[in-house]
Amino acid sequence: MENSDRRQQREQYALQWKHLEEKFHSLVASTKLVPEIKWGTTIYTLNGKNIVAFGGFKNFASIWFYDGVLLSDPLKVLVNASEGKTKALRQWRFFKDDEFKSSEIKKYIQEAIKLSEKGMTVLPERNTPPEPSGLLKEYLKKDKNFQLSFDKLTAGRQKEYIEYIESAKREETRLSRIEKIIPMVIAGTGLYDKYKK
User: Where in the chain is CATH 3.90.1150?
Assistant: First the structure.
């Protein structure tokens, strides 16, 4: 299917649930949440933190609760949309118009607001970088300043450097890459920092 066909299809799905989306926006307008446009859609935030959003799909419409896993969920309606991938995000799905009960939905939104105000959130898992190996490990052992500087880098920066060195197929390339990164590591910068500005 071509991209324009997919886009048309997504627009059709959104249109079929437009009436529920409007009810949702009216409901949220009565709270202290602020609408922001992110990823091409309206996300409701509190102090810049994502709280709730609405989405229309082929077979259902849904309300997304960004820290939904923390909600008490007395009606047992929240589902994990991507099992094994999504830690905090939960969906409340509506397959028919009459399932959209404004008073119940508002209770969930109010609870999400209270949790956010208390600072309760699900923090992303910290990835531990792989241990340096091969030539990089040798160079780190030889040069204490390089080792100390490398250890001070964030886990993400360490991982970038390790992958950069290990992705080289030839030893010559690995050596030249190590020589290139030593001053960057000692300066405390990441491999891709210049692209992130």
Answer: 3-117
* CATH node for 3-117: 3.90.1150
For the segment 55-64, the average pLDDT, to the nearest whole number, is 92
Q: What would the DSSP string read from start to end of the chain?
A: --HHHHHHHHHHHHHHTHHHHHHHHHHHHTSS-EEEEETTEEEEEETTEEEEEEEE-SS-EEEEETTGGGS--TT--EE-TTTTT-SS-EEEEESSGGG--HHHHHHHHHHHHHHHHTT--PPPPPPPPPPP-HHHHHHHHH-HHHHHHHHHS-HHHHHHHHHHHHT-SSHHHHHHHHHHHHHHHHTT--TTGGG--
Q: Average the pLDDT over 72-101 and give the result.
A: 90
